[in-house]
Fold:
Amino acid sequence: MPSKKAATKKSNKPKKNAAIDTLLTENRLFKPAAAFTKQANAKKEIYARAKKNPVKFWESMASELVWKKKWSKGLKWKAPDAEWFVGGKLNVTESCLDRHIKEGRKNKAALIWEGEPGDKRTLTYFDLYRQVNKFANVLKKLGVKKGDRVALYLPMIPELMIACLACARIGAVHSVVFGGFSPESLRDRINDLKAKILVTADGGYRRGQIIPLKHDADVAIAECPSIEHVVIVKRGDFLLRIKEGRDHWYHRLMQEADNYCAPTYMDSEDLLFILYTSGTTGKPKGIMHSCGGYLTGVYATTKLVFDLKEDDLFWCTADIGWVTGHSYLVYGPTACGATQVMFEGAPDWPDKDRLWQIVEDYGVNIFYTAPTAIRAFMKWGESWPGQHDLTSLRLLGTVGEPINPEAWIWYHKVIGGKKCPIVDTWWQTETGNILITPLPGITATKPGSATHTFPGVEAKILDDDGNEVKEGGGYLALTKPWPAMLKGIWGDRKRFIDAYWSKWPGIYFPGDGAKIDKGKYFWILGRVDDVINTAGHRLSTMEVESALVEHPSVVEAAVVGIPHDLKGEALAAFVTLGGGKEFNDKTISILKDFVARKIGAIAKPDRIINAPELPKTRSGKIMRRLLRDIAIGKLLGDTTTLADPDVLSKIKKEYEED
Ligand code: WT7
Structure:
């Protein structure tokens, strides 16, 4: 049992820092239990070994994977371009599937899947291998070639994982679009990718409702000239229209497909997938990941951070539409030959104990979720997990946003029964794998801190000039390349450099503020750009603003993040209506729904506030900082740069009346 050293909590005066939120000082320390340490995959020596020669460390991890041809050089680095495992050739599916078939895991469960309505499927490694090979042949027959982009817009069903791996089998680049995104979001991504094929489903389930995926896909691809074929997985008995010649049923194509598809060997640096994430300028960024480096990173972290053992049942609750699902569902656990749970539904449907029912039913050992979910569990109360036997759990993880110490302690006590180490893992879509995290069995944890860098990774806190902050707050910086680092932004080299590599020369800037304490623990404080982290996902304020101004009544909009009990941050939108339009409750609900339709429910603002005018600097920049102050009820900050200081009191009045 982790020993609690000092259970005191001191609160220091919040530090003044305009760009960065402040946290209380948290002094509780949870040391690893000796029994856990004894059996842990990671041994203490790993840190020193990796520090001494990080490239060699990563090479040792890479050599645990299947390569067709070994690399000649571990790393070629000329910032911002890293080439990992230079000259190496591989097909990632050989590490994720073929080798398990040969090495005694043929009949081991790869996926234990449960659908929202309660339907269940188990796929062994052989099943997965067979389906992936067949679907790879289907894609080939539809004309997909190495390097072609395939868009996937599916619910959380095994076919989503099968489709990802089938693309990887033939060297096609998959791009998963979260099933909760709107047709317009799907359209924009497909057009940016120039995808040839879209794989979707007739529909999906969400809290008892049907999500008409194929219908939405039809709306999207009406404006996607690159799409040649649509493959439809039959999930239910949903109504849909079939366009002859373009649309095909997945199960029909699979019936005719050959069993085996020879893997297409890829250069280590060839593209594996593109996944879109929000940036500050509105348009989502297509983050590119490679084969060799990415697989090495997710394999190493899955094995060492989650301490996976042959008999473990691993469950990452993320949707494959996000990077967490790519790295810790599709690629990391399969590269480890693990058995995992995949779940289609929501945590509160039909009741608020759905996840705990699943943990109990299958005996889940390792559970990885987001702080926003943990806060919801806390709010629903202990009685829901209390009805279930959670004693199978032996390790817990979190990802997506800073976890507040209260939620951490609750997770530790109520879900972990005080016996499970918690790994608070910091990373991003761009980083590919976990970079700052405890290693269970080694690291003493502090609630709210992601602790230290993963072996082979180097992070520092820097100030604007690139000076290192040894203790205190600043910007998080990654000062050495790592294998799973992004290869670029699809079609936008300049933005890649501007967004990540221009703050300091040769150093990666993730956009997060952080602080480091005396004990060298990292505390992530959140985004420093115009990006809101809501429910563990990044949304660009610009993107939501662009959606709002598309509505005919809105002439201008500014969106800010406001603290939210469950979501961490929620969206507040200040809107200026045009043409004497009246602002009332109906406007609010129309605009909320409009954003949900344009982008997806995840972007729906919690508040819409009437702003007859927006506060601007003399150069015309909207002063979001001031709006945020109004939205959170803080006294107004420095307004001396405002073009018209009166604007603020007007908005403030509107806000207070709202
Ligand atoms: C941003 C990345 C990584 C998969 C999920 C989100 C925030 C992520 C943590 C953590 C504090 C965290 C950061 C980061 N974040 N994990 N453990 N503690 N903040 O992926 O959408 O690419 O967002 O999420 O702000 O930059 P993403």
Summary: Residues 1-23 have pLDDT under 50 and may be disordered. The first strand starts at residue 3 and ends at 4.
